[in-house]
Design brief:
By secondary structure, this protein is α/β, with parallel strands linked by helices. It has one domain (6-233): TIM Barrel. 46% of the residues lie in helices and 15% in strands. It has eleven helices and eight strands. Strands 1-2-3-4-5-6-7-8 form an eight-stranded parallel barrel, surrounded by seven helices. Bound molecules: cytidine-5'-monophosphate. Cytidine-5'-monophosphate is lined by residues 9, 11, 35, 124, 162, 182-183, 194, 212-215.
């Protein structure tokens, strides 16, 4: 790989803890993910501060709303100069194409780089029973496939998926679509609360473009060496 595919989630509640991780790891990883907890606590300022170090940012706020509202949020994220952001594919075709168009338009108008708008299919916290209960018939795999195809034909250039879905999606959708995958554990590490994991090398082999890897790096005695060992394993 000619780029560093590791994205470290800043799964911490506040600015100081986040910036400590960024300063420590920025030279050894490809990007940092900012999710709802940190964003709600520290606001857009934390995105600007991480970007100001030169690090790439994945803004994982999983937007899901009417197309006009999501488009506005995507424009704002594009002005913050994030490199990736997430929306829920279950928001439908119009919402997804509004999001992608908003990113493209705003990046042209504001001369910021174009962020990769990623579709989230079915949350891995939901199984077939859970999706049936909210009115979706069929099993999780069929629903993941359906939403991934819809995302791709709505113009999205990337998807978030579990390691177990990489092969399926690589068989079903264009190779152009980037896949970002959490649930990654190096062979030697504790799987914690993750249930179905792959090693970094297995996930890349299966077709993942980016790997979200948190605790195996952030909780290691030496996070920098842990990140380097993962890059070397690829
Ligand atoms: O520490 P760990 O490597 O498990 O962190 C994985 C990150 O990816 C966390 O931020 C978690 O919320 C996120 N994530 C996940 N599984 C999903 C979607 C997101 O682990 N299906």
């Amino acid at each position: 790989m000619d780029y560093n595919p590791i994205i470290v989630p800043l799964d911490v509640p506040d600015r100081d803890a986040a910036m400590a991780l960024v300063e420590r790891l920025t030279a050894s990883v490809g990007a940092f993910k900012i999710g709802k907890e940190l964003f709600v606590n520290a606001g857009p300022a934390i995105v600007r501060e991480v970007r100001a170090t030169g690090a790439d940012v994945f803004l994982d706020l999983k937007f899901h709303d009417i197309p006009n509202t999501v488009a506005g949020a995507v424009r704002a994220a594009t002005r913050l100069d994030v490199q990736m952001l997430t929306i829920h594919s279950s928001g439908g075709r119009d919402m997804m194409s509004a999001a992608e168009n908003a990113a493209q338009e705003e990046s042209r108008n504001s001369e910021q780089s174009l962020p990769l708008v990623l579709g989230v299919t079915v949350l891995t916290s939901m199984d077939t029973g859970d999706i049936n209960e909210v009115g979706v018939d069929g099993d999780v795999t069929a629903q993941v496939k359906r939403l991934a195809k819809l995302a791709s034909t709505s113009g999205l250039r990337g998807l978030v998926c579990s390691p177990m879905e990489i092969e399926l999606l690589r068989a079903e959708i264009s190779r152009e679509v980037k896949l970002v995958t959490p649930g990654i554990r190096p062979a030697s590490s504790d799987i914690q609360d993750q249930k179905r994991v792959m090693t970094p090398a297995q996930a890349v082999q299966a077709g993942a473009d980016w790997l979200v890897i948190g605790r195996p790096i952030t909780l290691a005695d030496d996070p920098v060496s842990a990140a380097k060992a993962i890059v070397d394993s690829l």
